[in-house]
Write a structure and sequence with these properties.
Layout (H helix, E strand, L loop, with lengths): L1 H17 L4 H4 L3 E5 L15 H7 L7 E3 L5 E3 L2 E6 L5 E6 L13 H15 L3 H4 L3 E8 L2 E6 L20 H4 L19 E7 L3 E6 L13 E5 L4 H9 L5 E2 L6 H7 L5 E4 L8 E7 L9 H10 L2 H7 L5 E3 L25 H11 L11 E7 L4 H15 L3 E7 L2 H9 L6 E7 L4 H4 L24 H12 L3 H18 L2 E7 L3 E4 L2 E2 L16 E2 L1
Parallel strand pairs: 1-10, 1-11, 15-16, 15-17
Antiparallel strand pairs: 2-3, 4-5, 5-7, 6-7, 8-9, 9-10, 11-19, 12-19, 13-17, 13-18, 14-18, 20-21
Helix pairs in contact: 9-11, 15-16
Length: 528
């Protein structure tokens, strides 16, 4: 890998020397991104595993993109219109887009992607597009969404990372959940998939036929997978890699790297993501089928200590399943405050009342705590959790497995008791929050949905009302009522709102240009 990078650097230098003026500052070069862990596949249309879209958002396009004010911007759709009743959305597609195999984009590709793929197989798309009863294609460049109920959140879910548009002539063949191109993606984005060397890197090369004239500026992107955390920091410090986000750099190292002249650190680029660190209980198996036991664990977790000592200040305590980023829009509610001064006393009392007294050794019961396999900070979080639970008489043993095994254990087999995790709120609670607690998101084999398998008719009804309401005040009331109910039931312990830092080299500009950060497509990224 090192020799490849040196060769790429030499080619970039030769390109820069062969042109003059401002063009030499913007055209050519290789941007090396670190993604950790390595994605399980390159199929973002059936899996929302975090690392996948860090790669594939450069390969696919969405109908829309978004600015930092979360306003829709043109992409494959150059214009659109929503009917007054919210039941019809008309997208006018660009007529100059071709997929990487040279086939032109048409409205049939949009129909196939929405109706046959995202609506049926995408973990969040199942909910996002459930009210889309048809996509009409009156001509090659017009796609008309017909809805059976208003879905105001839908317009916030159409970027390349969340809802990639697929070429129907390729992906309609065979089972979409086990497609032959799952690891060799073909899209219309600014970069073309070239190679995946497992355990090392994915290489993406410039799409010379991209519809944005003159873009992308870079010759290629190399996404590296480096298991060792200290090595990830070192290659950034040495200039062998240029960008990393989503916790790929240990948080204590971020504080050191941001002091370097060659490194910039920003928390910008996560406005549309709003991740919440959480712990999921298996509510269908003892001891966590007992609400009081779940509440006791919720009280036991020292949230501020976790923020300060695991994420080095990059976060704030969570007050429920909805991020405070939604507070300005009113789509926010506060639940039980589990960080009260006497939280340990409360937790112990709850366990006593639940019928779990301490034994002679001080232990009430033993559990296995699964750690989400996304880096060393999650292991440290697990270790702190073990210590916190010991304070209330619960002996926890950590289990750390690879990503595919952990996903299957959590979302297919439900073979766990308590697991750490994090979910993105996305740009609307309907898209990112409901999936974790709604009964219709209990879907064995579908990842990052309702893994606790808890639900209630009352909370389902509140979420259903918020889903179709076009009035902002109605939605606000629904969420303000929802959050206290969810935190009281405690199917999930919402620990903190994570404020990810992105580390990138000052050698490159315009790397983070949207509210999805390194999930962006890098079409504007260039060398300084």
């Amino acid at each position: 890998m090192k020799s490849f990078l040196l060769t790429a650097a030499g080619l970039a230098l030769a390109t820069a020397l062969s042109v003059g003026g401002a063009l030499a500052q913007t055209q050519g070069g290789t941007l090396v991104q670190i993604t950790q862990p390595e994605p399980p596949n390159l199929a973002p249309y059936v899996s929302t595993s975090g690392p996948i879209a860090q790669v594939t958002s450069k390969v696919f396009d969405g109908l829309l993109e978004y600015n930092f004010d979360l306003e829709p911007q043109p992409s494959l759709a150059e214009s659109w219109e929503v009917s007054a009743d919210g039941l019809t959305i008309t997208f006018n597609l660009r007529d100059d887009v071709v997929f990487h195999d040279g086939t032109p984009l048409t409205s049939e590709d949009v129909r196939f992607t929405i109706m046959d793929v995202l609506r049926e197989a995408h973990p969040r798309g199942i909910a996002t597009f459930r009210n889309v009863i048809a996509v009409e294609t009156p001509d090659r460049h017009t796609a008309i969404f017909r809805l059976d109920a208003p879905a105001p959140y839908l317009m916030m879910a159409l970027n390349s990372a969340e809802s990639p548009i697929l070429p129907a002539h390729i992906y309609a063949e065979g089972d979409i959940r086990a497609h032959g191109n799952a690891n060799e993606p073909i899209g219309s984005g600014p970069f073309v998939f070239t190679e995946w060397r497992r355990g090392e890197f994915v290489r993406l090369d410039r799409n010379d036929n991209y519809w944005r004239d003159g873009q992308p500026y870079l010759d290629r992107i190399v996404v590296r997978f480096i298991a060792d955390a200290s090595t990830r920091t070192a290659v950034l410090e040495q200039g062998e890699a240029h960008v990393a986000g989503f916790g790929a750099v240990p948080y204590q190292d971020v504080r050191r790297l941001e002091a370097l002249d060659t490194i910039e650190v920003t928390t910008r680029g996560y406005e549309m993501i709003s991740p919440i660190v959480e712990m999921i209980f298996n509510t269908q198996e003892p001891p966590f089928d007992n609400q009081m036991v779940r509440q006791a664990v919720n009280y036991a977790i020292d949230r501020q200590f976790v923020i300060d000592n695991v994420w080095f200040g990059y976060g704030v305590p969570a007050s429920g399943p909805i991020s405070s980023n939604f507070e300005p829009s009113g789509l926010f509610g506060r639940g039980i405050d589990f960080s009260v001064p006497d939280r340990i006393d409360i937790a112990n009392r709850l366990l006593d009342e639940a019928g779990f007294p301490r034994g002679a050794d001080g232990i009430r019961f033993e559990i296995t705590h699964d750690v989400t396999p996304y880096g060393e900070e999650w292991q440290r979080f697990g270790e702190i959790t073990v210590q916190n639970l010991a304070e209330i008489g619960i002996r926890a043993t950590l289990r750390y497995e690879d990503l595919p095994t952990w996903l299957a254990r959590t979302y297919t087999d439900y073979d766990f008791q308590l697991t750490s995790n994090f979910l993105f709120n996305q740009a609307d609670p309907v898209i990112g929050v409901h999936r974790g607690i709604h009964s219709d998101r209990i879907l064995p084999g579908t990842v990052f949905v309702n893994g606790s398998r808890w639900s209630s008719p009352e909370t389902d009804a509140l979420m259903d009302a918020a889903t179709v309401a076009t009035n902002a005040a109605t939605r606000q009331q629904a969420y303000q009522a929802l959050v206290p109910l969810v935190t009281e039931a405690s199917p999930v312990a919402y620990v903190l709102e994570l404020r990810y830092p992105t580390v990138h080299s000052t050698q490159f500009a315009d790397v983070i240009t949207s509210p999805i950060g390194i999930y962006g497509n890098y079409a504007f990224a260039h060398q300084r």
